[in-house]
Every structure is written in C-alpha cells, then in structure tokens.
Amino acid sequence: MSPDDPAVTAALRAVARDAGLTARVHATRLAGPPGTVALDDAEPVAIASLYKLPLALVWADLVTAGDLAADEPVRLPAASRMPGPTGVAMLLDDVVLTARDVVRLMLAVSDNACGDALLALVGRERVHERLGALGLPATLVRQGSADETRAILRDTGAATWAAAQRALADPDHAAETSQYDPALASAATAADLGRVLRVLWAHRGPPYDLVRDALAHQAWRHRVGSGFPHDDVALLGKTGTLGRLRHEAAVVGFPHEHPVGVVVLTRAARPERYLPGVDAAIGELARIAVGPLRLPDDA
Amino acid sequence: MDLLKHLGFFRAVADVRHFGNAASDLGMTQPPLSQGIRRLERHLGVRLFDRDARGVRITAAGRRLLPATRDLLDAAADLVSTARDLALPEQVRLGVAADLEDGVPYLLRSLAADLATAPSVELVETSRASATPVAPTVAGSVEVVDLLRDGLLDVGVVRHPGVLDGLTAGPVLVVPTRLVGGLDVRGRDASGRQPALADVPLPVAVPPRHHQPPAHDQLVDALRRAGHGGDVVEARDAAQRRALVAAGAAVGLVPVLPGAPAAPGDPAAGPAGPPLRLRVALPLLAQRRPEIDHEAVARAISSALSPEPDPVARPSQGTAG
Predict the structure, then answer these.
(1) What are phi and psi of A180, to 5 degrees?
(2) Cα–Cα distance between A248 and B28 in angstroms, integer?
(3) Are residues B288 and B260 both part of a single domain?
(4) What is the domain count for chain B?
(5) Residue A257 DSSP label
(6) Of A176, A204, A251, B189, which has fewest CB within 10 angstroms of its CB?
(7) Residues B97, B165 within the same domain
(8) How far is CA B278 from CA B171, B173, B212, in A?
(9) Residue A284, CB half-sphere, CA atoms under 13 Å: how many?
(10) Residue B318: which H helix or E strand, with range?
(11) CATH no. for residue B164?
(12) Mean pLDDT, to the nearest integer, of B43-61?
C-alpha cells in the first residue's frame, strides 16, 4: 500500500473503532525521501506526559548552545516533589542528579519529578521561546506534571492520587477532567509531535544523542512496540498516559531502512486503567501507519 | 404590501379576464379584489387592465409583466412545497441500543406517558394528530451514534462505554441484569447457596460485539473478573438469545428494569450479571432541531431507566482550568 492509499486510513479507522478509540495518527519518514501517513493528525489533543519530549529537545538545544551544562547538578528534595508512579517521583528521600540524568529518567520511565525539575531548570519562558524558534507551538509544554496532578486532584475532588485514579477509572460514571481538554492541558496535534521527532532526528551532537539514547531505554514496549515484536527492530519512544488518554511518540528503526517516526494519540471510550487491548491497538495502528513508509536506506 | 398575494390577484384576473369570476376563483368577493388590483397598479406605477363596457382587457404593460408574475408565483409555490417536504414530523426520532432488549417497549411506554404529561414538551401540543410523540429506531449503539451524528436521530440511548465524538452525553445510567436459563438452580438450592456467575458453566448470550465493541469487551472482562470463563455467544437479537437459552446452549443476560415485568418466555431468574450501562446521547447544541425539547426527553429517559438518581455528587462535572 502506498502512503496516500485511502485503504491505509480506512484500516486505521477500523482498528480504532474495533478498540473503542478516538485515534490521531501521524507517521513520517525521518530520512530519505519524504513520506507521511496521517489520520486526523491536525486535531489538537491533551498530550499528558508527552510534553517531556519537546522539553528534552529544548534542553538539548540549550546545552548545544552553551546556555546550560549537561552535568549541572539538580536538587530534587523530597518535600517539594509531587509524588508520582515511577522514578524519583516514587522515592522517599532527597535526591541530587545531574541534568542529563534528570533527562534520562524523565524519558526512560516518564519520571514526573524529573519532568518538573527540568521544566524549572529551563524555565517556561525559555521553553516557549525555543519552541517558537523551532516552529513548534508553545502549547506543547503548557505545564509540568505537578500542575497536571494538582488539576486532576481538584477536578475529581479526590484527596490522594490513588483516589483520583479510581474516580477517573470508575465504569459507572463518565468522569471528566480539565486535563483531557487541549485548551487547558499541554496539547499538540499528532502532526506537531511528528515535527518534534523530525527536528530531534535532524540534529547531531552529544546532547541530542543523549535524548535519543534515553528514548531507546524506555522501560516499556507495550504500545507502539507491540506492533513490532521483532528483536532486531530498534524502538525509541515516549508514552503519555492519563485516564482515558494513551499516547506514544516513537521512532521505529528496521535494520538497513530509513527510520520512521510514528505518533499515535488515543482517547479510549473505556475508563479503566489497564486495557491491554487498547495498548495492542496502538501497536496495530503504528504498524499499519509505518508499513507503507518502510524503505531500504540504500535506495 | 404583500406583493405575492397581489400578484396572485393579477394572475387570476389575467387568466379569466373577469373580476367577478376571478374573485370567486380566489374565494373572495369582487370589491376587495378590485381594490387589490388598484393597489398593485399604484405600487408598480403601471396600469395592468383596461376596464370598459366590453369587459376587462390586459394592457401592454400587464402583458409584459405577466410571465415574470407567473415565474414568481410558481417559484413561491415550489419553495413552500419543498419546505413542506423538508419539514420533519415533530416526533422525537429516538435511537435505542438493541441491548435493552425487552426493556425497549417498557422505555417507550414510560416515555410516552412522561412526555404526554410534560407541558414543557412542545411537540405534544403541536402533534396531537400523531399517535405517539416518539419515532423509535432500535439498532446497535455504534449505528445509533452514526445516525445521531448524521442528523437522522434526535436522541439516542446508547450502551456505555462507547466512542461519542461529536455528540454530548448525560450521566451513565446503570441498569442491573440477571442471568436466565441453563442453571442447575435446584442443585444449588440443596446447598442453600444462590448460584453465582462463577458457577455458570455455559457461555453467555450477548448482543453482537460490533454493536459497541468497548462495552462488549468490558462485559467479557467483568464476566472473567466474577469467575466466569468469559465465553460468550453473540446473538443477533432477543429472539436468537431466547432460542440459544431454550436450546441450553447459553445463558441469557437480561436487563432488570423497575417497571418492566419479566418476559413470558424467559425462565426463572438466575444470579445477577454485570450491569448494563447506558447513556443518553444528544447532538451538539447547534445541530439540534429546535422543535424538539432534547433535554426533556433525556430527563424522561433517565428517570425511566434509573428511577433513583445517583445521590453521589460528581465533583468531576463542570471542571475548569
């Protein structure tokens, strides 16, 4: 199938419908002749933890420009951290990391404490300025993880994060939160995030290598990765998850082929936290979108 | 001046060349017709007819204006008849998820009663001629959602959860269910224990998965969670479900509605099953037919399906950033 074949978008829609998803997909070849597969990729959606990807790109830019040092120590005191499910955010004691290790944890395990610390280190103004210079929308990084968590606690009226998660996952209520709203949360279109991947892959140099290496170390492979169950296929990715939102921006590297960036942004009809069928559908959407873009790199 | 009405006078007189006959064709008397023609002549600034002893003759100017007059009147008649074709019956076009099965007639009866007594529902006042204020369509939820989006339905009762992009939806209505048939109830009675889902060795007859895939998958997960194997048989409709139950090939899963008695064909009730979750889905505000009071219909459906409103206030409603 060629990338423009209407059968490709029809197949994407069929998978989304079968899985009970609203899906936005953008796949793009990151080297070689340009090529794109898209499904509703101009619709803005709340991107949850995917804000960490453009944030890492901006950090790499600033390190390359000499504005920030990669090995700068960053203090993450326990008292000022918003608790989260992974990484430093789930630890109990004070932590000091270098900036580049903050970036690694933020990307590899979606560490919320590291996301907030890096956003504070770079500064929101500077993030927006750099995104603008790269031709990317400022909405990509509207807020950090702590702001997101606070908004969800407020919206659900829950006292704890666990209670808020239960409220969002309640099958007997259609719980809403401002954090599903692209007008209020960090937001982007699938095409915007495809552009983030293109920019990241267009840059050479140690800070960008560090970001790419952290993406290659992502601790899970259940979403986009489930569509590529091949040990020799490299997968670099970043997920974003919040309630019914399940996203991933990834780069798929088949040996001897041009790398293909693929962004899958989904909102499930089902509210439950664990939906392996939906994660598998994201893999299927990625596989269908990447397929027509595969091209040997000696062509 | 009502130009179309007066042009109608002009055409009538021009057709029969006689004021008295034209007046009777128009169902009026001659003096107002003559006055009307004079008013039109003043308005247009030309004489349309010469009246003399030999009768009524159309003037040269009148002859020139007659074709345009006919075109205008024909166009106006076309417009009215097209509009009449476009006007939908002032019935609520209601889509109901087929999953409600025997609850569908119950829902429609209580809806008819509720809407007939609700003075806020204007359609009842204006459509006394029609027997029912509701035109029902029973279909799979995905189809109901598509019909709502395409403007072919006004209100939908769909199974939750499902994708509702481009629509608005009310709170989740939780309808209890029970299993029917295929159970060795007597054996369980000996042990003094009610049979549970985990004791059901047969597959469960359910609506086709494509009717609402996420709700179907959620049901299968709930069956497994309760200890059932999760095997299901997709039955096209309630008749097929009853046939499967009667043949001992499956157990049925039927909604239990407060005012709806068990269907006569159904065997005695077994254990409770996972609940049937529904939502009332409506088109976005800008796409609603103004002659329908969508909110009143939605309220009536909610009170029929879920008579005791959930006392738990949901702080998640109406969030702000």
Answers:
(1) -90, -5
(2) 76
(3) no
(4) 3
(5) B
(6) A204
(7) yes
(8) 9, 5, 11
(9) 18
(10) none
(11) 3.40.190.10
(12) 88
Beta-bridge partners for B178:
B254, B272
CB contacts < 8 A, A to B, total 77
Nearest-Cα residue of chain B relative to residue A21? B163
d(CA B11, CA B67): 10
- The CATH number that applies at residue A286 is 3.40.710.10
Distance from CA of B235 to the nearest CA of A (A): 18
Clarify whether residues B192 and B147 are in a common domain: no
Chain mean pLDDT for chain B: 84
pLDDT tens, position by position, B107-140: 999 898 887 765 444 444 444 444 458 999 999 9
Q: Write out residues in chain A with pLDDT < 50, as ranges.
A: none
B165 with A178: Cβ contact below 8 A: no
| Whether residue B192 is found in the same domain as residue B225 | yes
Looking at B226-307, which runs of residues are DSSP E strands?
232-234, 251-255, 269-283
DSSP tag of B174: E
Strand bridging mode B167-169 / B55-58: unpaired
Residue B268 has pLDDT above 80, yes or no: no
Residue A226 tokens read as 């489930």
The CATH number linked to B66 is 1.10.10.10
Please indicate whether, in this complex, the C-beta atoms of B321 and A172 are within 8 angstroms of each other.
no
Distance CA A166, CA B206 (A): 28
Residues in chain A: 299
Tokens of A283: 């893999």
Q: How is residue A50 annotated by DSSP?
A: G
What's the rounded Cα separation, in Å, for the pair B169 and B147?
A: 15
Q: What does the block give as tokens for B45?
A: 């600034």
Q: Is residue A298 part of a domain?
A: no
Is B185 strand, coil or helix? helix
The predicted-structure confidence for B200-223, as pLDDT tens digits, reads as follows 889 999 999 999 999 999 999 999
Asked if B321 and A151 come within 8 Å (Cβ–Cβ), the reply is yes
User: For residue B64, what are the domain limits?
Assistant: 3-86
Residue A256's CB: how many other CB atoms inside 10 A? 9
Which among B142, B169, B221 has the least Cβ separation from residue A174?
B169
Kindly state the greatest CA–CA separation across chain B: 111
Which residue in B53, B52, B48 sits closest to B33, CA to CA?
B48
**N residues, chain B:** 321
Report if residue B314 sits inside a domain: no
The chain B residue lying nearest A171, using CA atoms, is B161
Q: pLDDT tens for residues A87-123?
A: 999 999 999 999 999 999 999 999 999 999 999 999 9
B165 touches chain A (CB under 8 A): yes
Q: What is the DSSP letter of A165?
A: H
Burial grade of A95 (CB within 10 A; 0-12, 13-18, 19 or more)? buried
B110 and B168 assigned to the same domain: yes
Higher pLDDT, B83 or B246: B246
Cβ within 8 Å, pair B320-A277: no
DSSP secondary-structure letter at B165?
T
For B191-216, give the DSSP string. TT----GGG--SPEEE--GGG-HHHH
Give, rounded to a whole angstrom, the gap between the first and last alpha carbons of chain B.
Answer: 55
* Residue B184 pLDDT level (bands cut at 50, 70, 90): low
